[in-house]
């Protein structure tokens, strides 16, 4: 699970970087060409285009954040399940005299 989510997150983090790059390019383009934009009366169109780029960047970042927010709980769940399995199996081993309670406590404390 962690490998799958890790691969998905790794690929997904490239999208926000590309979106920020496009947004920065648009901002630089608008700033460097401000005189031409004003001379042609394209102020509103340029602002609308920039707003569209900002909205697109926000949507991409939200998608990646949702994916990233699943990663930590998934890892915590895996660790918790393995911890519970260790306690349950260790308890069974203790009751069947395979290991001592001291061995179990020592093993769990090393986790």
From TrEMBL:
GO terms for cellular component: plasma membrane. SUPFAM superfamilies: ABC transporter transmembrane region. It is found in: Cell membrane. It holds the Pfam family ABC_membrane. InterPro entries: ABC1_TM_dom (IPR011527), ABC1_TM_sf (IPR036640). The lineage of its organism: Bacteria, Bacillati, Bacillota, Bacilli, Lactobacillales. PROSITE patterns: ABC_TM1F (PS50929). Keywords: ATP-binding, Membrane, Nucleotide-binding, Transmembrane, Transmembrane helix. One of its GO terms (molecular function) is ATP binding. The chain crosses the membrane at residues 74-94. Residues 1-111 form the ABC transmembrane type-1 domain. Its main location: membrane. Gene3D superfamilies: ABC transporter type 1, transmembrane domain. It is a multi-pass membrane protein. This is ATP-binding and permease protein.
């Amino acid at each position: 699970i962690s490998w799958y989510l890790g691969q998905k997150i790794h690929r997904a983090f490239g999208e926000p970087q590309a979106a920020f790059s496009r947004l920065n390019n648009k901002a630089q383009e608008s700033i460097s060409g401000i005189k031409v934009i004003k001379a042609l009366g394209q102020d509103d169109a340029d602002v609308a285009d920039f707003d569209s780029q900002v909205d697109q960047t926000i949507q991409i970042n939200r998608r990646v954040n949702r994916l990233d927010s699943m990663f930590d709980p998934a890892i915590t769940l895996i660790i918790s399940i393995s911890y519970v399995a260790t306690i349950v199996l260790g308890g069974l081993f203790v009751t069947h005299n395979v290991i001592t309670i001291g061995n179990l406590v020592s093993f769990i404390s090393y986790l």
